[in-house]
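2024-03-11 09:14:02 DEBUG pipeline.ingest accepted 1 chain
2024-03-11 09:14:02 DEBUG pipeline.ingest length=231
2024-03-11 09:14:03 DEBUG pipeline.predict start
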Amino acid sequence: MNGVSILPTNSSTPNRPWRTTVVAAVLLVVAALATAVFRHAGTCLVREDALSRADAILVLSGSMPYRAEEAAKLFRQGYAPEVWITRPAAPLEQMQTLGVHYVGEEEYNREILVHEGVPEADIQILPGEIINTEQEIDEASQEMQREGKSSVLVVTSPQHTRRVRALWDLLAGKSQRAIVRAAPDDPFDAAHWWRNTRDALSVTREYLGLLNAWAGLPIRPHTDTNQTHGD
């Protein structure tokens, strides 16, 4: 009136502090869950079976001397009558060209087993060369078929146990039973895996390997024997 315009009051925009509170609470919950997942990423990788007797003990390559030492302990306790060792692929030709005498990891594992009380006659180095765990399981499964064995006690590192189980279930014969055990003296710190590069790299590699196994192994192993075997 009289040329004066009256602006309408914005009564449709109420004060909404509760929205800020809800968003903050959701963010706190997400942060807490992410922290819990991060902290327990190492312990979630450790998955052992109950101990029981088997036809053979299989020492997966890597992490010397801990896996072989645990295999020897299980042998002495009577859990299996023999111990199998896998043979990692080796760059023998390249070493010979350089004039370097190369001793494969399987020989060191054999010496550890003998030192820990396993008779040489009860140690078998599997014939096929392997590059990774997938090939190790294939080789062990074939050896079980050749010898008519139905069970094997697999010794590996703690962080490797869950992936070994996943790969065994995927690759081994239905009648072949694996009892997966961890070498307790392995220095992997499952509860504090982020504190050193060795454990952090192990956890990263294991989860990538698990994703590959759960997807049906679409990513195949490399075949370059100049590279060292990796779990």
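2024-03-11 09:14:41 DEBUG pipeline.report The longest strand covers residues 123-130.
2024-03-11 09:14:41 DEBUG pipeline.predict end
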